[in-house]
TrEMBL record:
Residues 78-91, 252-278 form the RNA polymerase sigma-70 domain. Pfam families: Sigma70_r1_2, Sigma70_r2, Sigma70_r4. It comes from Marinobacterium stanieri. GO terms for biological process: DNA-templated transcription initiation; response to heat. Gene3D superfamilies: 1.20.120.1810, 1.20.140.160. InterPro entries: RNA_pol_sigma-70_dom, RNA_pol_sigma70, RNA_pol_sigma70_r1_2, RNA_pol_sigma70_r2, RNA_pol_sigma70_r4, RNA_pol_sigma_r2, RNA_pol_sigma_r3/r4-like, RNA_pol_sigma_RpoH_proteobac. This is RNA polymerase sigma factor RpoH. Sigma factors are initiation factors that promote the attachment of RNA polymerase to specific initiation sites and are then released. This sigma factor is involved in regulation of expression of heat shock genes. It is found in: Cytoplasm.
């Protein structure tokens, strides 16, 4: 997997994440047959070039998963890099004889790496992130006499002593009263409480990345077959379909009839026959 790692490092998102996303989105997606052939070459022959192609063609999938974890406030580029590590681990362990697509197998490895990164770096409450906040944090801890919330008079007194705004004191008091939340709820918590953990609501479960990628592949394949089928039509039929269905300002039957100097009924017949030929060609393809 050394070759794949070098290529991914060269494409590392770094600071320019948008450029990275555009680059990996332009890499062609493998068909099922192409993926199976490459996976077999890697599995049986340890072909590193096959591993590289498998990794490269699935980098866009890692970006898709990384975006679903944007609620944690961590850099998208860092999440993508961690996910790429998981992708390479998945490619190395992928068995083509299992009869599943790589994208379905890799999603668990990609998420596992992202989860580990989140657990190492993310806290719901960031305390004392600047020098001024650290000073206020330690001074406030020493001046706060009780566990309950301070009164307005106490807040004003602390703010005056430390030379800061009362609003800043209130914000820091809120941070001191907050706790970190585990990524996954402890097993001992009841069923309702489990839904309060970040793992239950920060990841977008409304759409499975594998399903979305499969649908995108299907749409791309359908467009390709449609264009190929239209190339088999004569110029007149192709123009009629394009202007009736594909143009932004669609032409009417009467407009096309006047242009070709035939009846509107004849245009309708040509359109119907062309649609029939396209359906047949797409089914054959």
């Amino acid at each position: 997997m050394g070759t794949s790692l070098q290529v991914v490092e060269q494409l590392s998102p770094g600071r320019n994440v948008d450029a990275y996303v555009q680059t990996v989105s332009a890499i062609p997606i493998l068909t099922a047959d192409e993926e199976r052939e490459l996976a077999e070459r890697l599995h049986y022959q340890s072909d590193l070039e096959a591993a590289r192609q498998l990794v490269m063609s699935h980098l866009r999938f890692v970006v898709h998963i990384a975006r679903s974890y944007s609620g944690y406030g961590l850099p998208l580029g860092d999440l993508i890099q961690e996910g790429n590590v998981g992708l390479m681990k998945a490619v190395k362990r992928f068995d083509p004889t299992m009869g599943v697509r790589l994208v379905s197998f890799a999603v668990h490895w990609i998420k596992a790496e992202m989860h580990e990164f989140i657990l190492r770096n993310w806290r719901i409450v960031k305390i004392a992130t600047t020098k001024a906040q650290r000073k206020l944090f330690f001074n406030l801890r020493s001046q706060k006499k009780k566990l309950s919330w301070m009164t307005n008079e106490e807040v004003e007194a602390v703010a005056e002593d430390l030379g800061v705004d009362a609003k800043v004191v209130r914000q820091m008091e809120g941070r001191l009263a907050s706790n970190d939340t585990a990524f996954d709820a402890p097993a001992s918590e009841d069923e309702d409480a489990a839904y309060l953990s970040p793992s239950a609501y920060l990841e977008d479960h409304s759409a499975d990345p594998a399903t979305q990628l499969e649908e995108a592949n299907w749409e791309e394949d359908s467009q390709r077959r449609l264009l190929s089928a239209m190339e088999g039509l004569d110029d007149r039929s192709r123009n009629i379909l394009a202007r009736r269905w594909l143009a932004e300002e669609k032409a009417t039957l009467h407009e096309l009839a006047a242009e070709y100097e035939v009846s509107a009924e004849r245009i309708r017949q040509l359109e119907k026959n062309a649609m029939k030929k396209i359906r047949g060609a797409m089914l054959t393809a």
